[in-house]
Amino acid sequence: MDNIPQAQKKYVLTDIMKKRKHQSSLNEERARQIKERIQKKKQKTKDFVHPEKFVDKYRKQQTAYSYFKRKERKQNLETVDAKSIPINKTLLVVRIRGVKDISNRQQKILKELRLNKVNTAVFVKTTVDIWKKLKLVENYITYGLPTRQIINDLIVKRGHIMKDKEIIALKSNEIIEEYMSEKDIICVEDIVNTIANASENFDFVTKFLVPLKLNHPEGQLKSGKIKKPLTKQGEWGYREERINSLVENMI
């Protein structure tokens, strides 16, 4: 090597460096291709759904639809006695189950009630039509008669209003006066009175209020019980005044 001219030495070293650089690029490209193949294989395995899952999902949806149709037929055959339901009273309705296996008709009713998510709650004024709707979706909700104290706690701690597509927390009476003074509602007490008494401005107030977001109650609404009615030691259905003890643990 010592006898090789300096210029030739330089050429040989440059050639070796080029080969090494080229080989390094090839190795990196191979490693990248191998990594891509592994990722594609994993994604393909992940995206694959066994046919049994589709069949199981279809069966559950059919079961939910059949339940809804039975309830609907029963309502059509029965005449609702207005004396047996709390007409013109305030009901607190809480969503306790998700959309899995729900029928399209039930999902539509829940959307009308603005109960799109689990552990959200709304106030409704009881009419025969509202009562019928609640009965059609009651295996996804629980509802009852709230006390004034529970209504107050919900408004103070969880109350938000919607104005111009913006959600605003009811942190002060100034906010209430700004948005509701046209109906002579200027403070939290006015909102509580309107809801508790189901007065003439009930619809105005409840439309302004965003559905109340609640916490999951510790030790209650367990997955095994929310699929059963209250009459069978479950969770869904009409609780009357017992709704207050449940919601108290969710605020």
From TrEMBL:
Pfam families: Ribosomal_L30. This is Large ribosomal subunit protein uL30-like ferredoxin-like fold domain-containing protein. Residues 91-141 form the Large ribosomal subunit protein uL30-like ferredoxin-like fold domain. Belongs to the universal ribosomal protein uL30 family. One of its GO terms (biological process) is maturation of LSU-rRNA from tricistronic rRNA transcript (SSU-rRNA, 5.8S rRNA, LSU-rRNA). The keyword Ribosomal protein applies. The lineage of its organism: Eukaryota, Sar, Alveolata, Ciliophora, Intramacronucleata. GO terms for cellular component: cytosolic large ribosomal subunit. Keywords: Ribonucleoprotein, Ribosomal protein. It comes from Paramecium tetraurelia. The keyword Ribonucleoprotein applies.
